[in-house]
Model the fold of this input.
Amino acid sequence: MTDATGRRARATFPDVPGLAFGGDYNPEQWPRETWREDVRLMQEAGVTLVSVGIFSWGLIEIREGEFDFGWLDEVLDLLHDGGISVDLGTPTASPPAWFFAAHPESRVQTAEGTRLGFGSRGMVSPSSPAYREAIVRIATALAERYAHHPAVVMWHVHNEYGAPVSEDHSPASNDAFRAWLRERYGSLDALNDAWGTAFWGQHYEEWEHISTPAATPTIANPAQKLDFHRFSDHQLRACFVAERDGIRRHSDLPVTTNFMANQHGGCDLWEWAQLVDVVSDDHYLVAADPHPEIGLAIAADLTRSVAGGAPWMLMEHSTSGINWQPTGVAKRPGEMARNSLAHVAHGADAVMFFQWRASRRGAEKFHSAMLPHAGTDSRVWREVVQLGADVAALAEVRGSRVEADVAVLWDYESFWAQDLEWRPVDDLDHGERVRAFYERLRADGLTVDFALPGHDLSRYPLVVAPAQYMLRARDAENLTRYVAGGGTLVVSSFSAVVDENDGVHPGGFLSPLRDALGVDVEEYLPLARGTSADIVWSDGSVSPADHWQEHLRLAGAEVRATYAAGGGAGLPAVTRGSHGAGHGWYVSTRLSADALSGVFRGAYADAGITPRPRDEGLEIVRRRSDAASYTFAINHADHDREIAIAGTDLLSGETAGSFAVPAGSVRVIRHDLT
Ligand code: GAL
Done:
């Protein structure tokens, strides 16, 4: 493959047949005899790709600069002989004991000043110069040795950047933070202005006096904290880039690092996705969630969106229970396959697990695996083997794209800013709001792409902003242009409040969207904890609302619902504005997914969208290639469903004009387009 300039273009997916199937493989935890059995059982399960070496730094570079590749050579050869490809890890999430002994200053320092010790993982400062040097050495050494090994098809740098800690207050971090701030602001005047240091007497005259926001008597400067969050993410990315570039000196194979899209935390995945050749994600069901399949769908849609719609890899999920949540609920029969195929429905071209063989020792021995402690005479193993066959049957789906109907805004920086302290109430939860709006769209049969407020949104008839607390002026202009151009925008409460430095917009709350929405906010009126206040729609119907109200000031919008009680009694609660050729809806209180139907009925009409309400529990997602469309029908409910789509079910081979979707099962119906 060459690009327009004649150079070899880097592949954006590992060279394996069809959809990749496999998981993390940690042979270093097992005697050599087990390796042969592993390869045989991998073949039995249809495994095509395993991630190797993610935590084996100390066994590869046994002393600084002294490498022992013997065992890894042997493992890679065995895998290759068995027809299994390798996603080769760089083991930098867990530096060896010798590294910390030689460089104790590289340990992470907490905000309270505690240095974190060896004997876990992820305990190293991304700003440590010694660490930076060491990761480039090991990544480059691995690439040099294995770039042309026939088993190796891609690189897996590090593991889950930002986990378990993303922030570090060590002296190295302080130095790097100051350098980053100099670069960002250029002058102390600009920094003092952006951080609002006139408040509480925090003015700076010397760069040297600035530190990371370590423990303070009461809350620290919010703009400083927000910048520290950005800086911390930047430092992690710099570590990734250093390793990636070391690898690229020797190898053209695609490079990835595994994201955690369902954690709204440390890493801005829009930025990260620009740096990898292929996006990959780890997803673990939240056991306490009564509908974990919705959290899964959100994470998968987000992963696809940051990948720009390109196929991505599900790098890790679990076959059954996990050991790091309060209760590691075991998956019910069929649930693993539903989870795996739901990821594929939402755009994954790989189904991988943590991990191949359950560990006998160490922190994760109670975590499920493809090959459980119980061995092959087990439900999990039988389901894994069946799933391997199902994934193989979907080979032709590879490369097809998900068709989305609407965009929902997902802005990490805004989430980080909203999570700072001392908001009007302390439990304004962006994740909860995104989920409520997403659930409404999903119940209406619509597929969601996520986007940033600065993206070109013109291809979406409807854009929803469930939690856009921070909104840059230029992004507000983009949204306003989108509406003027004929788009329909739905915005939820406590949005467009601050600029990129967590400073309230000069025109007041919501003012940057005043033109687009025809309304702004005079005052926030949070409801006392535990109270609620209904809203009354213009047709007289009533919906429950709770938690939050706002005193809206109309600037051209029509009122669609008013508050029936609370501090806002009689005031507008939901409005619809018109701007140019489009419309802007504003929802100033907390509505459940059900109550939001009152908003979306109108917004769909404005956007020209016909909702396709589905039977409860039946998820329908469509992928499309030039030749065919693939309708994934996933029945999460405990009763049978029916779908009226003609085609061939790739999983059963059946061709029909409509299909039963039995309780808990999945259909993938191919429909030819030519
Ligand atoms: C992931 C991690 C794996 C393993 C897994 C267990 O977050 O990348 O190494 O710890 O969790 O669920």
Notes: The chain has three domains: 20-178+237-397, 406-607, 618-672. The first helix runs from residue 32 to 45. Residues 159-160, 282, 284, 316, 322, 354, 364, 367 surround beta-D-galactopyranose (CB under 6 Å). Residues 378 and 652 are 23 Å apart (CA to CA).
